[in-house]
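Predict structure. Chain length: 187.
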Amino acid sequence: MPGPWVAVAVDVGGPATFVPPLTGTFLGYGVDVPVTLGGDGRPDPRIPLPVLITAWLRERCAVEVSRVELVPPDLAPADCVEFGRELAGQDCGLLVLGDGSTRHGPRSPGANDDRSGPFDEHVHALLAAADTAGLLALDPGLARELGAQGRAAWQVLAGVPGPWRCASAEFFAPFGVGYHVAVWERP
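Prediction complete.
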């Protein structure tokens, strides 16, 4: 069983590190749901969305999160791999958060782009196969055009040496934004 979890997420404010204790709320996103990475302080309205989501997941999964590492969406693949290798040397579980394309359909926040479906289908197949080489081959330019900020986080994951196997993988695109959920584990 690994030690505390480290979350890796993408945010335009990255690189940045957030550590417990930390309390926030989703009020800025329309619902006052308080979340915490430990502690009971007043909610800080400046906490980025990926950190809030990490705290929400931590509470539901009853795991300890030692920190949330935010990487910028334009982080070069080689730098993603290097960061993944650094994380591999730590005794921790890894939670990787990253959105797929924001261009699924006419109501999507990024405006419809017919390339979004094939792109996210490809990412889903890569995650379902635990294909680190395929994740590393994702084109940063295409990901940027499709609003798929998760590319950097997925490439950090790909930098963590395997072997890996995927226990489950799902894809959803509510409100025009692609979300991938996959569980990787050691064989």
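Summary: The mean pLDDT is 94.
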